[in-house]
Write a structure and sequence with these properties.
Number of helices: 6
Distance between the termini: 29 Å
Shape: elongated
Order of helices and strands: HHHHHH
Number of strands: 0
Strand content: under 5%
Radius of gyration: 17 Å
Structural class: mainly alpha
Helix content: over 70%
């Protein structure tokens, strides 16, 4: 077994968790009209794809992994862009999504993301930009789920879609920050690979 085998097993498990919950969350988001759940379901899908890419790329040499790290940094930004577009559409009709399905779905998403983060936590500093990308995505998603639950609680008192919209935009900003961090880690790896070849 190679040193990265445990990382590959971890990201494969996380990929399956993310892809499965993406279907659940997107379905509920369409039923209740939630910007935050749309954003989070797209993020689950992106995380599933990201972890599958990491599963294959983890066996590659450092210089090839750094290239994939740069690509993953861009992939992480996709949900941010989709969320902003969805939020603009929702601003035109800021109706409150149904709070009970929103809360239950967000709580399930939180459990899924905590499980993913627990699987990845020991790899976040040892697997380079690839493992860092997976860890940051799981961590950010857990934070986003807490914010979605909070927005549902606020919406009980304030009958408006604005808490949902604000949380959706916040998720977009978290993804943008993670994308920048992964880009920097991949750039550092690329520099290390060039120095090792010199």
């Amino acid at each position: 077994m190679t040193r990265l085998d445990p990382l590959r097993r971890a990201v494969l498990a996380v990929a399956l968790i993310n892809l499965g919950y993406a279907v659940v969350e997107f379905t509920v988001s369409q039923l209740i009209g939630s910007v935050a759940l749309v954003a989070d379901s797209i993020d689950f899908l992106e995380d599933g794809i990201l972890n599958l890419l990491i599963f294959f790329a983890a066996a590659w040499p450092l210089h090839r992994r750094s290239r994939v790290g740069h690509a993953l940094a861009i992939v992480i930004l996709v949900p941010a862009i989709v969320t902003l577009v969805t939020a603009v559409v929702k601003i035109l009709d800021p109706t409150r999504p149904e709070t009970i399905p929103l809360t239950v779905t967000a709580f399930g998403a939180l459990l899924a993301n905590l499980a993913a983060a627990a699987i990845l936590v020991r790899h976040r500093h040892t697997g380079g930009s690839l493992a860092r990308a997976a860890w940051l995505s799981a961590r950010n998603d857990a934070l986003a789920n807490v914010a979605i639950i909070a927005s549902a609680a606020i919406a009980l008192a304030w009958v408006s879609g604005w808490p949902d919209i604000v949380v959706g935009v916040g998720i977009a900003l978290l993804n943008a920050d993670a994308g920048v961090k992964v880009w920097r880690a991949a750039s550092k790896e690329r520099l290390e690979a060039k120095q090792a070849e010199a």
